[in-house]
Amino acid sequence: MDPLLLVVIVIALALFFDFTNGFHDTANAMATPIATGAIKPKTAVALAAVLNLVGAFLSTEVAKTVSHGIINEGDGSGSVAITPSIILAGLMGAVVWNLLTWLLGLPSSSSHALFGGLIGAAIVGAGFGAVNYGTLVDKVLLPALAAPLIAGFAAYLATKLAYWITKRPSGSASPRRGGFRVGQIFSSSLVALAHGTNDAQKTMGIITLVLISAGHQSKGSGPEFWVVAACAVAIALGTYTGGWRIIRTMGTGLTDVKPAQGFAAEVSTASAILASSHMGFALSTTQVASGSVIGSGLGRKGAGVRWRTAGKIATGWLFTLPASAAVGAIAAALTHLGLPGLIVLIVLGLTAITGIFVLSQRQSVTHDNAMADVEASSAAVHIPSKKERRAAGRQAREAASQARKARKAADEAAKQAKEAKHQAATELRDARRRLDRDDAATRSLRTPSAATPADTLDAAADAGSGVSEPSDVERAADSRAVEPSNAGGSRTAPAAPEGQHRPESNPTQER
Amino acid sequence: MIEWISFVQVAGATMISALLVVGLYGLGVRLQAVAEDQNRNRTLQRAGSWLCFGLCGVLVLFGIILIIPALHSIVGL
């Protein structure tokens, strides 16, 4: 096949990849301000497209990482010749994998699909030496892990800060955080700009790589201006068309992200992506934005992580690189068959793309498939709404009051038990005293010398309010042995009074 | 091999810029809300809030200029 034709096919496919990237990912930056009514849909979509276009021109560091960092371009000492057909295979793998995950609604990353496809194709097409593993780890794999964490932590702190600064006494009249609604226009614009600096550049890198491998450009040079312009236009067009698709579905509802929280998340996302682009880190903008959304959610009051959802998202991320590498490897294996294999690859790839497109048209556009992974990631955090927080507070208060009531009831019961015990003791004492008196009376009848009249005894017992042991009744009657601590004792009451002689005429009344 | 310095730089730049921008903008939002309260100097609060928003914008512009090599001459880098 004519090498020039192959180069043209690769460039066209790369620009198509760029377009889908804008269509799928970058348009979502504007979803929040549209939803909150801060900006008109038409304006928002146009703004996002223009900012992606501008962002693509800002820097070329990431493009350089892709074009002569990860893949050894060839012809130099110790480097491996990489051919346009290998790049085509890798790109085809990335595009097919990307569209497939998009159709199935799996969480994925366009950037990782691109790198995966390229690496898989390079290894199969040109051997393990074709990949520069040091740069791969340094500029792609580690940033892929670190950037979402950094952005998430920044968003967490920023959200806390935003809520702390704007905290006002609940009685104050004016809206407290309304200003963030307008602020989101700017923060979303920054995110769109940042997307342009990172996503568009990956495609520039691929095109530059194929130009270098075909000998149209010197090794180590940056992207040509027409390449930058073409990529910028492609991602802007993708953003514009993708934006309309999102607006159509806006009525189906968005995850509840408050303006202050959204502002903090978007500023963190933009900061992280812009700083990374400057360092030449080729990262997944979707993953950084997801990290920010989760981090800012955790910064809200009473928020908690839904680990199951978060795990699902993380698994999707981990899966993308090896899976697209496998697709790229299969595609590269086809190119080993020479021209027929190459033709088969192109035909198969185009068929797959068309087939997926037709299938996707059959699906109705709903909230579920129109919203990108960033939106989905916000489901990984549970933020209690004001209503839920109030309900929880009410429940806590109710529980506390119930506990108080229960304690009161317990106190009451204890008091009653004490009284009952006291009463029982009193009855017991009464009964004993009567027994004593009867006893004394009988004794005095028997021995007239005992000059203690029953009345005196009774009065004495009354005054002492003592309780005598049943065994030495006599001593108690004589010396009025007083043991008040015994009064509420644990002696069982019914033993004494029941079955005893109870004189009807007993006038004794205790307290 | 791995340039840890650049990771630290990215982390530091992200933290500082995000917190500064959000902090300044938040302060502006707060001052705007305070200006609506009674017994307050409305003009002063309003001016303060716009100052905060302005500083915030300058900060963002500075960050963007830092990224674009062609514009480095503006800030004398």
TrEMBL record, chain A:
Provide the membrane topology annotation: Multi-pass membrane protein
Per the UniProt record, which residue ranges are transmembrane? Answer: 45-66, 78-100, 112-133, 140-165, 225-244, 316-335, 341-359
User: Which residues lie in Basic and acidic residues bias regions?
Assistant: 408-441, 472-481, 499-511
Record keywords: Membrane, Phosphate transport, Transmembrane, Transmembrane helix, Transport
InterPro entries for this protein: Phos_transporter
Q: Where mainly located?
A: membrane
In which residue ranges is the amino acid composition biased (Low complexity)? 442-466
Of which family is this protein a member?
Belongs to the inorganic phosphate transporter (PiT) (TC 2.A.20) family.
Naming one, the record's GO cellular component terms include: membrane
Q: Which domain of life is it from?
A: Bacteria
For whether the record's keyword set contains Membrane, the answer is yes
A single Gene Ontology MF term assigned here is: phosphate transmembrane transporter activity
**Gene Ontology biological-process annotations:** phosphate ion transmembrane transport
Q: What is the official name of this protein in its record?
A: Phosphate transporter
Tell me the classification of the organism that encodes this protein.
Bacteria, Bacillati, Actinomycetota, Actinomycetes, Micrococcales
Q: Where is this region: Disordered?
A: 399-511
Compartment(s): Membrane
Per the database entry, which stretches of residues form a coiled coil? none
